[in-house]
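Can anyone check this?
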Amino acid sequence: MEGKIGSKETTAIQRKAHEVLSEAFGDMVVEVGKASYYHEGHKVDLKFSIGYKDALDDVKNQALELYGLEGWKVGDIFELYGEKYRLEGYNPKARKFPIQMTRLSDNSSRKAKESMLRSGKKVEA
C-alpha cells in the first residue's frame, strides 16, 4: 500500500505541525503532546497545547508549590550529578517521576523524582 503512515512519518508530521502552529500563533507557546498512528496506516492523531507562556509558567509554579517544592520556579537552572538542568514543570499524574526537566548539554527532556530535585543545587543562569 502506497502512502502508508508509520512511526517515521508520524514524527515528521508532528514536527512540521509544531513548526506551522508555532509560526501561526507567534507569541503563544505551542507544546507538543502525544502523536499516535493507526496500524492500518491511514490516520494520525496529534495532540498540542497552545497558551501564553506567562500563564503556563504560573500554573506550573503553582503545581510545584502545591506539591511541596517551594522556592523552585519553572526555568530554574540546577546542577545534578555534574550536569546542568532547567526545570520545566511538574506532572502530578506521574507518581514515580513527576519532575520535568531539560538537560542543557544536549537539550534533551528528562524526568526525575522529587528527591532528585531537592538534592540538586541551584545555579545562577
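Reply from J.R.: I decoded it. Residues 5 and 41 are 4 Å apart (CA to CA).
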